[in-house]
Write a structure and sequence with these properties.
The protein is mainly alpha-helical. The chain has 20 helices and 2 strands. Strands 1-2 form a two-stranded antiparallel sheet. Pfam families: Ank_2 (PF12796), Ank_5 (PF13857).
Length: about 350
């Protein structure tokens, strides 16, 4: 999500909050007029804002007046309604929207709206006001994010609930992923639960990977997210090339592995190279994982002694350099996920298991 710029909001030529002398109409074309007007909006100085509107609006009314006011911008491209929202002034916002009739979805820096500004300040009162006045919950900023994506990226559960209650669509895609994918990737079980309560589609796969939210939660090692998704009816065996169980075995997520097995995951679905999850776990030397998988895994051809120790001994023939390569790939994928690059990480995981 493109962040709103942070100009020196508390300063403009003539001193903070300084009024323009006598509101001389000749000053309208002066940059100081716009800066004083914008500063008054930010500081919630409704009296000064009304004076400025009267001066600027001489000879204009209705939509023409609104358009003149929407043209008042600072050097960052931020207008009056954005400034008022960033300053947290509900009275000024209400005056500009209801009296002046400014466009509630007027675009500012990076394609952001006044609603985005309220979200950036985590101002629930203003966000609720904009939504009740008809702010578009599906407006995309320059990076393709909706307000819901923005609220989720801030970890603001209250805002996520508010947006969903006002009609925000939980399944809008951004860079191939939904907000549910984001929550699963970052282990935000609180946000994920709210999304599921509003019927977010847990069957949707992340574009380019085939990974569902359940797989992403598994990679993120978020047991709580995995449990919530399973309770919501997510397919325990996934829909992509690798099952959640295979991912858990590869990632060494023992608690999730156990959860998936108890939920009925098929331990006999192989990866693209024909390897069962138990072989992956044994190859990594994770005896506990092998013990969890052993009772639900069918006999594997070529394993001479069908026991936990027999399987571990069987996979020791894998070349050391191959083991090192897999470990390195897993480490890189984990780092990518921590940085939020889940498309990159998903591809690394896929390549690591080939």
């Amino acid at each position: 999500m493109a962040t709103l710029p942070h100009p020196p909001l508390h300063h403009h030529p003539g001193g903070a909050g300084a009024a323009l002398p006598d509101w001389d109409p000749s000053l309208i074309a002066n940059p100081d007029f716009d800066l004083g007007f914008l500063q008054a909006a930010f500081e919630g100085d409704l009296r000064t804002v009304k004076k400025a509107v009267r001066v600027l609006g001489r000879g204009a009314e209705g939509r023409r007046l609104a358009e003149k006011l929407e043209a008042v911008r600072d050097g960052f491209g931020m207008g009056l309604l954005h400034r008022a929202a960033l300053g947290g002034s509900l009275p000024v916002c209400r005056y500009l929207v209801e009296h002046v009739r400014m466009d509630i979805d007027v675009l500012g820096p990076h394609g952001t709206t006044p609603l985005d500004a309220a979200l950036a300040r985590q101002n629930m009162e203003l966000a609720r006001y904009f939504l009740e006045q008809g702010a578009d919950t599906e407006m995309l900023d320059a990076d393709g994010y909706t307000p819901l994506h923005f609220a989720a990226s801030q970890g603001d559960v209250g805002m996520v609930e508010l947006l969903l209650s006002k009609g925000a669509h939980p399944d809008t895609l951004n860079h191939g992923g939904t907000v549910l994918h984001y929550a699963a990737t970052h282990g935000r079980d609180d946000i994920l639960k709210v999304l599921l309560d509003h019927h977010a589609d847990h069957k949707k796969a992340l574009s380019g990977t085939g990974y569902t939210a359940l797989v992403l939660a598994t990679i993120a090692h978020s047991l709580k997210c995995v449990q919530l998704l399973l309770e919501a009816g997510a397919d325990v065996d996934g829909v992509g090339k690798e099952t959640p169980l295979m991912i858990a075995a590869t990632a060494g997520a023992t608690d999730i592995l156990k959860c998936l097995v108890l939920a009925g995951a098929d331990a006999n679905v192989p990866d693209s190279l024909g390897r069962a999850p138990i072989e992956i776990a044994a190859r990594s030397g994770r005896r506990e994982d092998v013990e969890i998988l052993f009772p639900v895994t069918s006999l594997i051809p070529g394993v001479r002694e069908w026991s936990v120790d027999g399987i571990i001994s069987h996979v020791k023939s894998v070349r050391p350099e191959k083991k090192a390569m897999l470990a390195s790939a897993k480490s890189k994928a984990n780092e990518a996920f921590k940085d939020g690059n889940y498309l990159v990480a998903a591809r690394i995981y896929e390549e690591a298991t080939q």
